[in-house]
Amino acid sequence: MMAMKKFSNSESGFVNIGDTFMNKLLYFPYISIPKSKWLVQTLLYWDEVASIVPFEFTSRPDRLDKHMQILINEQLVTQIFPEDYVSELPDFTENFLRYVDSDPIIKNRSSLVKNNGIITNTNKIHVGKLSDISYQLVERGLAKKEGNWLKVESYTAESFMTYLAILIGQKTGFVPSTDRYSGLSKLLIPEGKVDKLSIKNRISDEFRAEILERIMPVPRYVGDISDILRFKHKYYNELKRFRGFIESFLIDIEIINDEELREVRVNRFLEEAKEEIEYLKEKMSFFGGVNIDFVTLCSLSSIIYPIASGIQDDNIIEVMGAAPGLLGAIYSTIFSSNIGELRRKPLAYAAILSSNNRLLGKNNYI
Q1: 231 or 298: whose pLDDT is higher?
Q2: 271-275 — which CB contacts under 8 Å span 24+ positions?
Q3: What's 4's DSSP letter?
Q4: Is 361's pLDDT higher than 90?
Q5: 8 A C-beta contact, residue 207 and residue 263
Q6: Are the CB atoms for 359 and 231 separated by under 8 Å?
Q7: CA pair distance 205, 166, nearest whole angstrom
Q8: Which residues are CB-contacts of 305 (< 8 A; sequence separation ≥ 6)?
Q9: Are 127 and 134 in contact (CB under 8 A)?
Q10: Angle of the 154-172 helix axis to the 104-116 helix axis, nearest 10
Q11: 24 has which bridge partners?
């Protein structure tokens, strides 16, 4: 497949709408992004999606699952190498170990392992992500080494991957996100010291997920994954307006302190958005899907009325035979004007996505 350019509009990872909204997502906690509805939705909403991949995998791409290899080869997912960042992060090891030694859940699990020598639930993390932390976790009874991998106690592993993803996101301009668990950002905030920024970020993440689930229907997976890239290229202006509209709303509700009022505002937004999307779908279907026939064209514009009213029974066949060229020109003008106006609406991208399933391999849905 011919290479297509990335969608980022600047090196900093922001879209052009006031240079305010980040448009790049960093997946965690795993290396390979699972084939899922979440993945399709993510690829269709964000300009660039990345995953944290150990540098060692560049020489052995076969270690990635086949689906991940396709995502990378089709330039739908970017690889971010943790080794490029962990050594540059000040006190990277010390700060995480300080957290490990102060978290009561981790301390309790460390004691249990030391008493019985068994780590009951573990997640594997590549040593390329851990740096010097790997040896310290082994000493604390929270991990066991297996070649270039570490089997880490699950709660500790999830905490570390959240820690790593947030820090790399800060360095690269990517927004950390996951489909596997939620709310782990709370683990990084000591009890009684929850800061306003963390609360805002958590609110935005949760409501963004809810909004996209409700107004941006997508298939669970797409047979030809490159269709996603082609779709985004074709409707990129609509995507920018749609994402800007959603992110602006998220910023607006961040300042609402009342949780109940915030929920009311979100529900109202969703109701109005769904009504607007249905309206746009109907209008787009009308202007974009009807056949060019005499009756339809006469209903589109009063400009055509004199032509219709001048037809007599004795010459209707002649007029009908001659009309399509002129009426086709009129129809094209009306179509381009109206469809262009509709596609400039903020929610047009969701309407197009919902009504143009054929662009995403309709027969491959599950």
Answers
A1: 231
A2: 273/211, 273/214, 273/215, 273/347, 273/350, 274/214, 274/215
A3: -
A4: no
A5: no
A6: yes
A7: 13
A8: 298
A9: yes
A10: 140
A11: 48
User: What pLDDT, in 10s, does the model give residues 322-333?
Assistant: 445 555 555 455
Other C-beta atoms within 10 Å of 302: how many? 7
pLDDT over threshold 60, residue 283 = yes
pLDDT digits (tens, 9 = 90+) for 101-127: 999 989 888 888 777 777 878 999 999
CB 52 within 8 A of CB 82: yes
- What order of strands is seen across the sheet that includes strand 143-146? 122-126, 149-153, 143-146
> How many Cβ atoms are within 10 Å of 94's Cβ, its own excluded?
12
Tokens of 264: 């009311």
Per residue, the 3-state secondary structure of the chain, as one string, reads CCCCCCCCCCCCCECCCCCCCECEEEECCCCCCCCCHHHHHHHHHCCEEEEECCHHHHCCHHHCCHHHHHHHHCCCEEEECCHHHHCCCCCHHHHHHHHHHHCHHHHHHHHHHHHHCCCCCEEEEEHHHHCCHHHHHHHCCCEEEECCEEEEEHHHHHHHHHHHHHHHHHHHCCEEECCCCCCHHHHHCCCCCCCHHHHHHHHHHHHHHHHHHHHCCCCCCCCCCHHHHHHHHHCHHHHHHHHHHHHHHHHHHHCCCCHHHHHHHHHHHHHHHHHHHHHHHHHHHHHHHCCCCHHHHHHHCHHHHHHHHCCCCCCHHHHHHHHHHHHHHHHHHHHHHHHHHHHCCCCHHHHHHHHCHHHHCHHHCC
Instruction: Report, as an integer, the average pLDDT of 81-109.
Output: 91
H-helix or E-strand containing 126?
strand 122-126
* pTM of the model as a whole: 0.73
Confidence of residue 198 (pLDDT cuts 50, 70, 90): very low
Q: Quote the tokens at residue 188.
A: 């990084």
Look at the block and give the residue holding tokens 């009213």: 309
